[in-house]
Amino acid sequence: MTATAADRLVFADPGEAAGLAAFLERLVRWEKNAAVRIQAGGGVAGVFARPARFEVLAVRTGRLLEPVELDVTVAAGELLELVEEDREAVAVPKAVTGPSWAGVLPPRGGWREFARVPVDAVGSVAAAAVGEFRERAEKLPPERRGRQTLDALAEEIWSRPLGRTQLPLRAAHAAHALGFLRGTDPAALLESGPWLRLRTVYGSVAVRRRERPGAGGGLSVTPV
């Protein structure tokens, strides 16, 4: 079947539209004006986002009933309003000017799996780190509980590796917050060039390796 341009995506598997809606609801809750980039090709659609509060890229993918070709950046809130859960479909709203992150996405192929870990273990590590942040923040005297100090504390915690992997804890935190760490199937850890990725059946979180520890900006808000 020949792929065509699309203004509507129809998913092949039950529950995909509801899963997409839940994903978009979380994004909009954190950032009302969030944007997402949609790419479709080869019978699969991917919706990419950079959730506020995290320094990661998140993606939900789903098989399509009919192959289409699409690459567009849209408002997450508008896309959410157009999800048709009963029809396993979503209409594509008008394009918007994409944020800078939308121009640099993880590669489609070339991924190598280097580990598998239980999703509940990853969730436990993320929850423990959130607890550590809150406990240490609460112990700070009021005069030291400013944005700069909290950002530095968050950066310290979420830059740590997940176990013996190079995947930073911020990826596990994001996967936990986005509802990706559910079910019994293990999470796969993958790498491709400078990218690292945590993948579950509910979605993926990808990050670029930093050139040196501590490079780049810290988190701008406290973890949730």
Number of strands: 12
Strand arrangement, major sheet = 1-6-3-4-5-12-11-10-9
How can the largest sheet be summarized?
Answer: 9 strands, mixed
Tell me the CATH superfamily of the largest domain.
Answer: DNA Polymerase III, subunit A, domain 2
**Terminal CA distance:** 45 Å
In terms of DSSP E residues, the strand content is: 25-35%
Unreliable spans: 212-224
Model description:
The structure is a single chain. The chain has 224 residues and is an alpha+beta fold. It folds into 2 domains: 8-91, Roll (DNA Polymerase III, Chain A, domain 2), CATH 3.10.150.10; 112-189, no CATH class. Helix content is 28%, strand content 28%. It has 5 helices and 12 strands. The strands form 2 sheets. The chain has a 9-stranded mixed beta sheet with strand order 1-6-3-4-5-12-11-10-9. The chain has a 3-stranded antiparallel beta sheet with strand order 2-8-7. Helix 3 (119-139) packs antiparallel against helix 4 (147-158). The protein starts with a strand and ends in a 16-residue tail after the last strand.
What's the quick description here?
The chain has five helices and twelve strands.
Q: Which terms summarize this structure?
A:
three-stranded antiparallel sheet, DUF8185, disordered C terminus, 224 residues, 12 strands, 5 helices, 2 domains, globular
Topology:
Elements: E1 4-5, E2 8-10, H1 16-30, E3 35-41, E4 44-49, E5 57-63, E6 68-75, H2 76-81, E7 83-84, E8 89-91, E9 112-117, H3 119-139, H4 147-158, H5 169-177, E10 187-192, E11 195-200, E12 203-208
Parallel strand pairs: 1-6
Antiparallel strand pairs: 2-8, 3-4, 3-6, 4-5, 5-12, 7-8, 9-10, 10-11, 11-12
Helix pairs in contact: 3-4, 3-5
